[in-house]
Design brief:
3 domains; six-stranded antiparallel β-sheet; Tumour Suppressor Smad4; alpha+beta; Phosphorylase Kinase, domain 1; Transferase(Phosphotransferase), domain 1; 11 helices; about 450 residues; about 25% strand; ATP binding
């Protein structure tokens, strides 16, 4: 039933709340805004009678007791009841309006139809946050079961992520009615007409790779010329996503090449990232154990961000990679070469106007890394570059000629080949790129 405005809702340990408005509805039920006696607004998902089963209640109560694996999940906080109504629901935090459904990224427009301007940095952050969030979920022994566009929201300005519809979450390899959303389901789930192959961490990893491919390349990894033929019916879905899937950028088979924009973005990103997607959608299609883990994605996305370089003539973001002498700007053909490289442990960071040293350089794999240092270009001598201390502590610095000093917060040092900068437990070494042909 649709709950009327003002109806009192029992939230168990969270006390009571009243319905203030209807936010939306879907196949399973309705979503209302409610307000607790304390004044705090929450979102209430209220199940339709056909979905309000005893099994659903038990599963939701279990998720409430387990607790959220990460703040990015709009997780069930408490079960909800209304008087003698046989149905039930649960409450969660409200989703801030700055978050858009991921499908808006493909549309390149916001809710009002205004063009989006999503930077490469925001897309990388989006992909990293998605990967880290599912790493935390899987570490709890849980799987999402239905990763898709409708469940992932992002902030176009910075790439922040929210993951919704968490009543889809279940125990890894446990029983569950939710098998996934077509196009995002793993092939072994699609082709099993007995429905015995249940979602698990491995099937989640396929769905995650599909989402990441969409975000980075703006298309589906299994769609192209081959899938454009025929009616999009059950047989088409079974063939192209279950029994005979073919990666659109397969290294040796070209019969399923995708739209031109997907191929353009494929060529923009460096080889190490393309190799991961080849593994995910060639070997990983038939061998779930060969799929890319969340940790592998995080490492690759950090490396991708380390290689971001702006073209000096048009400002377009390009991606340098270790071993490259330079990269050719995909927009205007300019050769882009980093003036310096910063070596931090096993990481190599290309110096450019967008470059930062972050907390993940000091401790790999950390969540939501914050900026410790910013590269700055001399305003009057563009060939000179500096590193600005954006942290709240001083850094010991040693120049190759023997000069050493402490760089205080808010101050900037000039980058010189051979300089060594100590930032907490990490040493940042400055060097010039190797001459062409020397790697």
């Amino acid at each position: 039933m649709v709950l009327a405005e003002g109806v009192e809702v029992d939230l168990g340990p969270l006390g009571r709340a009243r319905v203030t408005s209807l936010l939306g509805q879907g196949g399973q039920g309705y979503v209302f805004e409610v307000r607790r006696d304390s004044g705090e607004p929450l979102a209430l998902k209220w199940y339709k009678s056909e979905s309000a089963t005893a099994q659903q209640y038990d599963e939701m109560q279990q998720l409430v007791e387990i607790g959220s694996p990460h703040q990015r999940f709009l997780w069930p906080l408490s079960m909800a009841r209304v008087g003698t109504e046989p149905s039930f629901g649960y409450v969660m935090h409200l989703r801030h309006p700055r978050f858009l459904e991921l499908s808006y990224l493909l549309l390149n427009a916001d809710r009002d139809g205004k063009p989006l301007d999503v930077s490469f940095a925001s897309i990388i952050e989006l992909c990293r946050q998605l990967s880290y969030s599912f790493l935390r979920l899987h570490a709890r022994g849980l799987c999402y079961r239905d990763i898709s566009f409708g469940n992932v929201f992002f902030d176009p300005g910075n790439g922040d992520v929210l993951i919704c519809d968490n009543d889809n979450v279940g125990i890894d390899n446990g029983t569950g009615r939710v098998l996934g959303t077509p196009y995002f389901m793993a092939p072994e789930v699609v082709r099993d007409t007995t429905y015995r192959t249940l979602p698990n961490t491995d099937t989640d990893r396929h769905s995650l790779a599909v989402l990441l491919f969409y975000a980075l390349f703006l298309g589906h990894p299994l769609e192209g010329k081959r899938t454009d033929a025929g009616m999009r019916d059950a047989h088409w879905l079974m063939t192209h996503f279950g029994t005979e899937p073919l990666f659109c950028m397969h290294p040796t088979r070209e019969e399923n090449r995708p739209a031109q924009i997907v191929q353009q973005y494929w060529n923009i990103y460096p080889q190490f990232l393309r190799d991961l997607f080849v593994q995910a959608f060639v070997g990983g299609l038939d061998d779930p154990g060969a799929r890319i883990t969340e940790g592998q994605w995080i490492k690759a996305l950090d490396r991708l961000r380390d290689g971001m370089l702006a073209c000096p003539t048009c400002g377009t973001t390009n991606f340098w990679s270790t071993g490259d002498d330079s990269v050719t700007c995909w927009q205007d053909g300019t050769e882009v070469r980093p003036p310096y490289l910063l070596e931090v442990g096993r990481r190599t960071v290309a110096v450019g106007p967008q470059t930062t040293v972050r907390s993940d350089h000091l401790t790999s794999g950390v969540d939501h890394p914050h900026v410790l240092a910013e590269v700055r270009r001399h305003p009057k001598a563009p060939e000179r570059w500096g590193l600005h201390n954006a942290s709240d502590f001083s850094w010991p610095v040693a120049y190759p000629g023997g000069q050493s000093f402490l760089l205080e917060p808010g101050r900037t040092l000039e980058l010189v080949a051979g300089a060594r900068i100590q930032i907490r437990n990490a040493t940042v070494q400055v060097r010039r790129p190797a001459p062409s042909g020397q790697g």
